Amino acid sequence: MTVRDAAFRTLRHFGLTTVFANPGSTEVPLLADFPDDLRFLLALHEGSVIGMATGHALATERPALALLHTVAGLGNAVGALATARVNRAPLVVLVGQQDRRHLALEPFLTGKLTGLAGDYPVWHEQPARPQDVPSALARAHHEAVTHRGPALVVVPMDDWSAPYDYGREVVAAPAGVRRPVSLTPADVQPLADFLASSRTPALVVGAGADSPAAWAALTALAERLRCPVWQESFEARAGFPQDHPLYAGVLPAERDGVRARLADRDAVLTVGAPVFRQYPYEPGPLVPAGTRVAVVTDDPDEAHRSPADLAVLADPGEVCAQLAALLPAREHTVPRPPPRARPPAPPEPPGPGEPLRPVHVLAALARGLPRETIVVEECPSARADLHALLPAREPLGYVSAAMGGLGFALPAAAGLRLGQPRRPVVAVVGDGSALYGIQALWSAVRYGAGVLFVVLSNGRYAVLDGVAAQHGAGAGPWPAFEDISVAGLATAMGCASHTVRTHADLLTTLHGITPTLPDRTKPILLDVTVPPDP
Questions:
Q1: What domains sit in the chain, N to C, each tagged with a CATH number?
Q2: Helix (H) or strand (E) run with residue 64 in it
Q3: Single pTM value for the model
Q4: For the chain, N or C: smaller number of CB within 10 Å?
């Protein structure tokens, strides 16, 4: 038996039987004569490798396996690994390395890999001996699950053929790890007291609450408190049903806006999110004077950096379920929450000579998408309209790149569809965003990921233009790219595509595609021509 044989045995044991990869020569010793019971999925860029693996891990709630080619592969994947970490996607990432026997001479393709991905991996290991590779893979699986992020294992290419004696080698990792959740009433009582003493509480929810159990518990808690529920800004996922009457919208990303939204709230419980995600810096406190803040999260980093009166590090769904059971229902004399912002009325179709705008596209999608659709968002300049018109109505109904880097949506949507093949998946992407990850379309076609990709093509980085205008600095030096055809690029990748320029064509095209989404095995891309929104 070789180290390679033992490694495959370890991967099978942990269910890591699908590998997302962009390999090179240092990975050939692992991949030649690849076992028939394992699935190999090629991506044409390392960002697509990690993006697809991230989507698959989020869809299956299990670690996904990725394979990268030494320093070039890991270097190209760093941005996607950062997104996987912030999106809390458990990944086991194998990185190839030159032959161990002459690494001291730094031969061609030698990678100085330690630290290359910065602090974004939750664990990093290059085994001291070839025979330690199976142990490293097992531990990487456990580290990825426990810390909800990418765990890296670097393996020199000659390690795979080294002998491995099961009778003598010790695997330095458990065969399984149980993570029981045990909360006593005493653990939850401080939070119950926190909420019971509040006259006008509010909830702020985040990606850490995106599960069926957490949605059910938060719904019960919000209804008992009769309080509004805001979604954290720049969310990776939705933490509450966004069609619920108590849903109040997305919390602003600047301090003035947060204080304005919470002006009449004397206590805020944040669940599955830090306190609070922001983007532009503004001076001043995060909440109004006199407003107390508590946070519930199972992410230690979120808890430790949150300016809060109380932090509880535990499963959000379990905590909220116990809170809902402990707290009495509010009397009708308690001040009602502010009325939920009503969904905007569908926009009037564009008149003769008027352009098709992103809001028209989103409204058309909203008419026919099934309730269980997973919407993957990467359209920064149209994000507010998407939130208003395409609310998440089921857990995992909304997915976005919490890190903010572009190039996530196309590969992540493919990975999500492969991991949840019965749920419709629609990616709404700006053309600037799509160009960062266009190679993922080839993989989606090759491996039967039946995603609807809707590209809002305005031929420029409209959100960047808007930021420049807000700063009053005039136009930036970056040019428009209206001469690029995203539909043409999709065709080159083998992906069916259609260019949409009119509202009538949009409605007719969606009418034909939407009913096919649950059962599609091939992706299709709509390249929708829109002007930049003013």
A1: 3-161 (3.40.50.970), 185-326 (3.40.50.1220), 358-529 (3.40.50.970)
A2: strand 64-68
A3: 0.95
A4: C
